[in-house]
Design a protein that fits this description.
Order of helices and strands: HHHHH
Structural class: mainly alpha
Number of helices: 5
Radius of gyration: 15 Å
Strand content: under 5%
Number of strands: 0
Length: about 140
């Protein structure tokens, strides 16, 4: 099956847009949304690669999506997997008050969390772009 570059690039564009939005949220102190959008950026990038190689991407866990790549012969290094596990923690708690015992999500996030999430998303997006070089020139 040939690589679907159009679909890959569509998802990658959204990943990069979400990453830039995450950075803007960090700058204004919206760290809960910054972390969630960083998770989304990584998710979109990995899904784009999966769709590109012809695999239906299901779910929102970046680490599970990376596992799909590994199951299909693509090596994922430990630093990328570690970044994915950190980002997975932001998928629900950054958005839902009932994900916490008390308080609102924004009260549990700070600049350090945003920076860590953004760095993780960047690491994963770069990984995806490096892998895609096998098919995209």
């Amino acid at each position: 099956m040939p690589f679907d570059e159009t679909e890959y690039r569509r998802w990658l564009r959204q990943a990069q847009h979400s990453l830039e939005s995450s950075k803007r949220d960090m700058e204004v102190g919206d760290h809960d949304w910054s972390c969630f959008k960083a998770q989304q950026a990584a998710e979109f990038a990995v899904k784009g690669l999966l769709y590109g190689i012809g695999i239906i991407a299901v779910g929102h866990s970046v680490s599970k999506l990376l596992g799909e790549l590994e199951a299909n012969g693509i090596t994922v290094d430990k630093a990328v997997l570690s970044a994915a596990r950190v980002l997975d923690r932001h998928y629900i708690p950054a958005r839902y008050p009932n994900a916490h015992i008390g308080g609102a999500p924004y009260e549990f996030y700070d600049e350090n969390a945003s920076k860590e999430a953004i760095e993780g998303a960047i690491r994963i997006i770069e990984f995806v772009k490096d892998v895609a070089k096998r098919w995209v020139r």
